[in-house]
Amino acid sequence: MAPADPGLVLLMALAEVEDGGAVRWLPRVVPLAAPLAAGDAGFERLRETMLSVTAHRLSVQLEGGAVDRAGVALARLVEALPPHRALLRLLALVRFIQGATDEAGGLLARVSGLAAGDGAAGEGAVPVAEAGLERALYALERRRRDHRMLGTVVIPAYRVEGCIGRALDSVDRAVRYYRQAADEPDASFHICVVDDASPDDTVKAVRAWSQAHPEHSLSLIASSRNGGAGRSRNLGAAMAMGPYLWFLDADDWFLDRHLWVTATALDRHPEIGFVRTGIRFDSIDRDITPVWRSASETTYPCNLGVRRVCHDLIGGFPDEEPFNPAGPEDVCYSRALQSLFVGAKTAEPTVYYTLSDGNVFDRLKADMLSGRPPGQGAPPEPVHLAAELLIRRRLYALEAKRGMQWDGPPILPDRNGRMIAL
């Protein structure tokens, strides 16, 4: 039979706390102690002494790595006894270590609400411990805030010191438009610039822009060798944060609504893997033939918003020799996406494709205005055949992905790509 004296009950309960046996006694303590708690100073001293001893024992367990065991005992004590600062603080530490951050924060708030004498007697280190936990909780929250990105804009850069700032400025405007349209002033996007071993001051220009815009999260990868746009985009995607990816060539730029239009489409349509928008084709926008406009808007990487998991599943952009420099790496990437995932398309132009001396647009300008479909009018070359063979090789390998179980959007049952209109 259990003793009726509350002091003995408390003593026996606390003596067994290391083995979890206190749960047998604790329900008896509170009702027995109730008539004494208001006026029996001796009992209060005994209670405080034993709880302090118990807190120390459990702290030793915690330091020894017995986190779960200490947590079980602490949870029982906290539930059965009146609030006690040391026990609450220890349970908060345990829950923090176990990853229950919200519960740890709630327990710490309870500790802060107690009077200084509740379980604090003789514990000069208590404020330090509580301050340490508070700082750790703040550090996690700050990290979550800093890394809570909607996605990453990847910009491959080669010899673009004169225009990279313009491209970055366009990302800045698109981010600000998104925040205003979404009514989310804290919405964050990461920018990853990948310098492809530029011989000019491209790196210096990016660093100068970043220093002038500290409000943006920007990383710079400086490659030691030139590997082409596909490899650079893959490097940037590997360093990405957030669920969505965008690509921007350094000599082009986003129109203000680009991030808003594409991110909103991906948010609203969980069944799609990617979304494409319209393009403004510099000075020939009114004259480009419909077939070339359609072909470009289907393959151009910069009018694309894509889920990062989909990018990873198809293996990113090809970077083999036939695709570099300025090969059909964008065609391969697009065909791979379309072979596995439903896409979405809006006719709204959200990117500006610049025409400048020597770039891909410049080399294709005559064909875009000729009326000939893409791929006709030019004699086949071995490099083109090699690229086509590599594309077919990749598409064949992706067939093994059909029917697989995964957490991304549904994988199509066949290669018959599907696009929904926005």
Q: In angstroms, what is the radius of gyration?
A: 31 Å
Uncertain segments are 17-27, 32-38, 120-126
Question: Cα distance, first to last residue?
Answer: 76 Å
**What's the order of the H and E elements?**
HHHHHHHEHEHEHEEHEHEHHEHHE
Task: Report the sheet with the most strands, covering strand number, pairing sense and barrel closure.
Answer: 9 strands, mixed
Number of strands: 9
Description:
With 422 residues, the chain is an alpha/beta fold. The chain folds into two domains: 139 residues, Serine Threonine Protein Phosphatase 5, Tetratricopeptide repeat (Alpha Horseshoe), CATH 1.25.40; 274 residues, Alpha-Beta Complex (Spore Coat Polysaccharide Biosynthesis Protein SpsA, Chain A). 51% of the residues lie in helices and 13% in strands. It contains 16 helices and nine strands. Strands 1, 2, 3, 4, 5, 6, 7, 8 and 9 form a nine-stranded mixed beta sheet that branches. β1, α8 and β2 form a beta-alpha-beta unit. α1 runs antiparallel to α2. The longest helix has 23 residues. About 6% of the residues have low confidence. One of its GO terms (molecular function) is transferase activity. It holds the Pfam family Glycos_transf_2. InterPro entries: Glyco_trans_2-like (IPR001173), Glycosyltransf_2 (IPR050834), Nucleotide-diphossugar_trans (IPR029044). It comes from Azospirillum lipoferum. This is Glycosyltransferase family 2 protein.
